Give the backbone structure.
Amino acid sequence: HQNEDRPFFLYGHSQGALHGMRLLEEVIDKDEALSKRMVAAYIVGFQFPEEKFENGDLERVTASDHPDDTGCVLSWDTYVEGVEPIKDLAEIYYPSLSQWKVRSEVKTYGINPLNWSYDLETVPESYSLGAVQAVFDDPISIKWTNFLRGEKMGLNTIGLNEPYKEEISARLGEDGFLYISKPKHRSFTRMVYPVGNYHNYDIALFYMDIRENAKHRLKCWLEKNNIVAGKEID
């Protein structure tokens, strides 16, 4: 409502991804002008159902399979190589059906954020532009074990570290999940969920990749809409 008809991005992770799905389906996809202004939607960490692009929930918004795509969704759920994703009872809403479905019972749409494709080849570490971690003011006093207890950990974030380049390799599985090599820095193991679920690092491990991809997609959007430096091309 406040961006004066400029292009925009949508980002959401975990619970935010679930809200992002519904915002796409119930607002953005229903409005032709609005959907055309969306550069891309990074909806990460809640198993985006592949069938939403086929059953009518999403008609204008598409599933991306190339770095140049715009008006599209990009999604992934990160696990370490060699494990099997947990099947839980979390549910996703389907506006076309007016009902919820258990997410583990439907095929997940995914893309590999190291090359922004959904081919199944392993993308090597050399493609990894940079992972980041939060920098804390008093790391020695952090109570990491409180994470799984739902208690205060004593975190006070004051910034981000210099990006770690070539941190991981990544492979998109046939099941739509993203499988990564074990990160080189031990700090990325502090808040890993059981069975190698890197949910808490879905964004951090690909921080610089996302930044560069967003800049590239905006450039593509401007070119597709014949706009340069905020002015429409005659």
In short: The longest strand covers residues 38-44. The CA atoms of residues 25 and 58 lie 6 Å apart. The mean pLDDT is 93.
